[in-house]
Amino acid sequence: MVVFFYGGSWQSGNREDYLFVGEALASKGFVTAIPDYRVYPQVVFPGFMQDAAAAVRWAKLHATMYGADPDRIFVAGHSAGAQIALLLATDRSWLAQAGLPANALAGAIGLAGPYDFLPLRDQTLERIFPDAIRSASQPIHFIEGNEPPVFLGVGLRDKMVDPANTERMAVQLRKHGDFVEVRRYPALTHEMTVGSLAAPLRLIAPFVPVGPVLEDVASFIDQR
Fold first, then answer.
1. Sorting pLDDT into bands at 50, 70 and 90, what band is 200?
2. Could you tell me if residue 223 is inside a domain?
3. End-to-end CA gap in the chain
4. Which residue among 4, 71, 77, 153 has its CA within the 20 to 30 Å range from the CA of 114?
């Protein structure tokens, strides 16, 4: 079962807009949950992390109802959602607060994610991530060497989230002995890193350079 968190700069997003992600993952045989979570200005960090951990707890408790294995729960996300997914995988305190064991995740998948994005240069983001606890929002700060397997996909034409976030995250994971698979997509922008999962783009993928994101993600999950 894959729990997918959409992006939106922690300020917007709606699960109905990501039906195409659920369809894509389901086409590969994965039960998929796409939860909504509170965003700014309703909450600031860590409010959306509390929601995300609760969603994973729900997935684990209800997986068998949907024909999924509760011991094979993957978290995934795009952009801000990737930060959420990878923070769940690295800072285990969020799982613990939701009553989940440290080994509750079978893997984590981040697409075009900000994992090491300080210092902030945007006033809204400075409000979303209060200064006193800002460092706790960085997945890269919590890598200790016992993380679940990680997949990181990044579009090299991404102008919104610096692809160097992915590279730094991968270096730290490897330094601590964790398994990490990195896939770089030369033709993909920030939006297209997730947009390429849509069925129409998957159909034309052999003819245009959109990148095999779905195939790579599915292979990572299958191998785990």
1. confident
2. no
3. 12
4. 71
What kind and span of H or E run contains 75?
strand 73-78
Q: What's 151's domain CATH number? A: 3.40.50.1820
Rounded distance between C-alpha atoms, residue 195 and residue 198, angstroms? 6
If one counts the domains in the chain, the total is 1
Helix 213-223 × helix 19-27 angle, to 10°: 50
Report if residue 192 sits inside a domain. yes
Q: Which residues contact 163 (CB under 8 A, 6 or more apart)?
A: 154, 155, 156, 184
Tokens standing for 61? 């408790």
104-133 pLDDT per residue, tens:
999 999 999 999 999 999 999 999 999 999
| HEC-encoded secondary structure of 130-196 | CHHHHHHHCHHHHCCCCCCCEEEEEECCCCCCCCHHHHHHHHHHHHCCCCEEEEEECCCCHHHHHHC
Strand order in the sheet with 2-5: 32-33, 2-5, 73-78, 105-111, 150-155, 180-185
Q: Report which of 140, 135, 102 is spatially closest to residue 120, judged by C-alpha positions.
A: 135
User: Is residue 221 included in any domain, yes or no?
Assistant: no
Tokens 């990501």 -> residue: 18
The H helix count followed by the E strand count for the chain is: 9, 6
